[in-house]
Write a structure and sequence with these properties.
Length: 317
């Protein structure tokens, strides 16, 4: 099946900043993909490249099979896009903005928009400038969903919204994927995104260090904590691929892929007590972010996630 989103070895620089470095990503149809990473990791840049709003320095990007470098207008008319701070015409009412947008889309748009605004309990006659941040976000999502796009791209759409609105947003994502359409969702609300994402793409400093089905990432990742008897005892070597290693005094924590638990018991026998648990996505991301701040992170992260910048892809489902 052709990917709906395809970044192939994309590098994007802004003067002396490399916002994306050799990033490759394929998102198949019917998948909710969470794009995660710290502030400045390159998430918005990746989205803008895909939408044809930023040229790349090297590599190629395409959406729904359309080349982003030449087909930006067509891409933007075919995907639903919700920016972090959506720009909406303030003087229009909720209803009027739907009529206005309907002029750019085939018949049926206004009715679909109306259905979404009612679902989100928006008052049709209220002016956009009178809406709260959450209500504006709901208008933006209604506009993006009303033309039933094959791909919905959301750049931190839920930041600053209350828990109920965030939940409504994320439930809409699940509905979209259930209809065989895809969602690319950039977010810092990791624990919430975890409820709806099928796959995750993690950017660290412009490099994609993990692209994988979420269930597979969680199934194969363990957090190990070992308590050493004193500071002079060397920490054991982990029997698995180390994503991150964080020492806290006598305690050392590791995030490990494909941990050999029997072997762990052996290597820890003369070292100290240990515990093993299955981490959530947020724990994995935090470990990667901490690791990212230490020298040599890129090499270790790529080795441990099996991801090299040129080949990262996932085929969920
Ligand atoms: N127009 C621009 N001019 C110069 N540098 C830019 C520009 N846009 C982004 N950058 C830089 O590129 C890097 C990636 O920025 P980007 O906005 O893509 O990150 P992000 O992951 O979306 O961050 P956040 O989570 O804070 O929104 C940052 O170092 C940023 O300063």
């Amino acid at each position: 099946m052709s990917p709906v989103v395809h970044l192939d070895n994309v590098t994007k620089r802004y003067r002396n900043v490399t916002a994306l470095e050799n990033v490759s990503l394929k998102i198949p149809p019917g998948v909710v993909c969470a794009l995660l990473g710290a502030n400045g990791a390159g998430k918005t840049t990746a989205i803008r490249v895909l939408l044809g709003l930023e040229p790349v320095d090297s590599g190629t990007a395409s959406v729904l099979g359309i080349d982003s470098s030449t087909g930006g207008l067509e891409i933007r008319s075919r995907v639903g896009y919700v920016a972090e701070q959506p720009s909406l015409y303030d003087w229009m009412t909720v209803e009027e903005i739907g009529w206005f947008a309907a002029g750019f889309y085939p018949l049926g748009y206004a009715e679909a928009y109306d259905r979404y605004t009612r679902r989100f309990a928006l008052e049709a006659g209220k002016k956009v400038r009178e809406l709260s941040k959450g209500m504006r976000a709901k208008v933006a999502l209604s506009l993006a969903l009303a033309h039933s796009p094959d791909l919905l791209i959301l750049d931190e759409p839920t930041s600053g919204l209350d828990a109920l609105v965030r939940r409504e947003f994320l439930e809409s994502m699940v509905d979209v994927a259930a209809e065989g359409r895809s969602v690319l969702l950039s977010s810092h609300q990791v624990s919430e995104v975890e409820r709806v994402a099928d796959m995750v793409a993690i950017l660290l400093g412009g490099q994609l260090v993990c692209v994988e089905r979420l269930d597979e990432l969680k199934r194969t990742t363990r957090e190990v904590v070992v308590t050493l008897p004193d500071a002079s005892t060397a920490p054991p070597s982990m029997p698995g691929q180390v994503l991150a290693h964080v020492p806290f005094g006598h305690e050392h924590a590791w995030m490990v892929r494909d941990l050999d638990e029997a072997r762990l018991a052996e290597v820890c026998r003369d070292v100290g007590p240990f515990s093993v648990r299955t981490p959530g996505l947020e724990d994995i991301l935090l470990a990667l972010l901490r690791e990212y701040r230490t020298p040599g992170w890129a090499h270790r992260a790529k080795a441990a996630t099996g991801t090299t910048s040129g080949t990262a892809s996932a085929t969920p489902g």
